[in-house]
Design a protein that fits this description.
- By secondary structure, the protein is α/β, with parallel strands linked by helices.
- It folds into three domains: about 160 residues, Rossmann fold (3-Layer(aba) Sandwich); about 170 residues, Rossmann fold, CATH 3.40.50.300; about 80 residues, 2-Layer Sandwich (GMP Synthetase, Chain A, domain 3), CATH 3.30.300.20.
- About 30% of the residues lie in helices and about 20% in strands.
- It is built from eleven helices and 17 strands.
- The strands form four sheets. It has a six-stranded mixed sheet with strand order 2-3-1-4-5-6, with helices on both faces. A six-stranded mixed sheet has the order 8-9-7-10-11-12, with helices on both faces.
- It is elongated, with a radius of gyration of 28 Å.
- The termini are far apart.
- About 40% of the residues are buried.
């Protein structure tokens, strides 16, 4: 279902991202005083009294980007303008009309009937009188708001609702799966996202660190709604240069936590490095299903085979020994669809429940094949198991003493469960509960209870 689009447009540093977060009610866009933080189109599905719309934040019009991405930023702004049902033209009440405000006004002139002027940063009463000058831009009297303290918010929301009401009263379908794309810088995440979206949804550049926000891109596949989350490229902690990179890195970690399946993109042309290993460990610790996406395979396939590269991954990423690998070339969309199909299969595995009988049969077979070794003169004794949760599949094991279960034996159990149970390619969480061994009723008592008669 196509939603009406409300686009936030303006020059750098007028508070577009703060306004985006205020309207959406959640902290989605990075807010930082450095001009040009937002580059891509950041979006969120919102509703006002069940009138649904897609809210889009854009980069600053006229920014001189330090990485020479100005043309790409402007292209993303134009995409948003062309698609918009309502355009919120944001200006800064504290600074008055700026030459870039006039430039933005001209940019929007061909879609003037869809534009509503918004004067942001009206944080103090005396600024209210100053906003009238913005009418000179040709879009009428502005709506006065303060993203900082929330004043004027309800008038703005009412304006938005008036523009989108009747266009989409039906709640959009919840995505059946959220897929986070993570990896080191320049692994090809944004190219992969654009291949999924079927359009240049995010900026692709050879310059590392192009993406800063975590960007949710909704797309349809086989009649189902899915969300792909493009994240900022991660690099070594010691090389995180500024607050923008820090927030971008934090958003990447948040994206792992809210994803159903994580695609760890690995550049096939480079050795697996510390960043790849750290991300793999994080994904494993979060118990997230993961696909090792070996991207740019078209540039490496003549030097090795998928089998040899798979063996290499097993050695350098032992925390991901259960994760399947997909060999892709995002640039020409090769194996993109099959990777998403594989992600769907992993998501289904992570939601699977097995009967207690099936689970205990697998446990007994494992115990028979390799009983626990003694630790400090005592061995762990397993009584039975039951599955208590999904996403991840969580198995509760009743034992005589959880401290007797060694890490080596836990790994053995996990491997046997993956072989015997229908979630062989996703992480499994094992939990333990102490249980005393019951004494049979026919067993002789070592002593009589106090007060009993002989």
């Amino acid at each position: 279902m196509s939603l009406p689009v409300v686009a936030i447009v303006g020059r750098p540093n007028v508070g577009k991202s703060s306004l985006f977060n205020t309207i959406s009610g959640r902290r989605t866009s990075i807010v930082e005083p450095t001009p040009g933080v937002t580059r891509d189109r950041v979006s969120a599905v919102c509703d006002i009294d069940e009138a649904y719309f897609e809210l889009v934040d854009t980069g600053g019009h006229g920014i001189v980007d330090r990485d020479d991405l100005s043309a790409d930023v402007e292209r993303q702004i134009r995409f948003a303008i062309d698609q918009a049902t309502l355009i919120l033209f944001v200006v800064d009440a504290r600074e008055g009309i700026n030459p870039l405000d006039r430039s933005t006004a001209e940019l929007l002139r061909t879609r003037a009937e869809y534009v509503r002027l918004v004067a942001n940063k009206v944080d103090e009463p005396h600024l209210e009188a100053a906003v009238g000058e913005f009418a000179k831009l040709g879009y009428g009297e502005p709506i006065s708001v303060s993203a900082l303290n929330g004043s004027g918010k309800w008038a703005l929301l009412e304006t938005i609702r008036g523009a989108v009401a009747g266009l989409s009263e039906e709640r959009p379908a919840d995505p059946v799966m959220k897929i986070a794309l993570v990896g080191k810088r320049n692994a090809g995440k944004s190219t992969f996202i654009n291949a999924l979206a079927g359009e240049p949804r995010v900026i692709v550049s050879e310059i590392p660190g192009t993406t800063r926000d975590s960007i949710d891109v909704r797309f349809e596949k086989d009649g189902r709604t899915l969300v792909a989350i493009d994240t900022a490229g991660v690099r070594k902690k010691a090389k995180i240069a500024d607050d923008i990179e820090f927030f971008a890195y934090s958003r990447a970690l948040d994206s792992i936590q809210r994803a159903d399946v994580v695609l760890l993109l690995i550049d096939a042309t480079e050795p697996v490095g510390q960043v790849d290993k750290r991300l793999a460990l994080t994904i494993s610790q979060e118990y997230k299903p993961c696909i090792l996406v070996i991207n740019k395979w078209d540039l490496a396939k003549d030097r090795t085979s998928t089998e040899k590269f798979g063996e290499y991954l097993g050695k350098v990423l032992p925390a991901m020994d259960y994760a399947p690998a997909a060999f892709t070339s995002a640039l020409d969309s090769r194996n993109i669809d099959s990777t998403i199909d594989l992600a769907s299969a992993l998501s289904k595995q992570a939601r699977t429940r097995v009967s207690t009988g099936t689970l205990n049969q697998a446990l007994q077979e494992a115990l028979a094949a390799h009983p626990p070794s003694a630790k400090k003169g005592r061995a762990a004794k397993f009584f039975y198991a039951t599955q208590i949760a999904v996403q991840p599949p969580t198995i509760l094991l009743f034992v005589n003493d959880p401290e007797l279960v060694t890490q080596e034996y836990e790994r053995f159990l996990l491997n046997r469960f993956r072989e015997r149970l229908p979630f062989g390619e996703v992480p499994i969480r094992l939990a333990y509960r102490r249980r005393r061994e019951r004494v049979p009723a026919s067993a002789p008592r070592s002593r009589m209870r106090r007060g009993s008669k002989r």
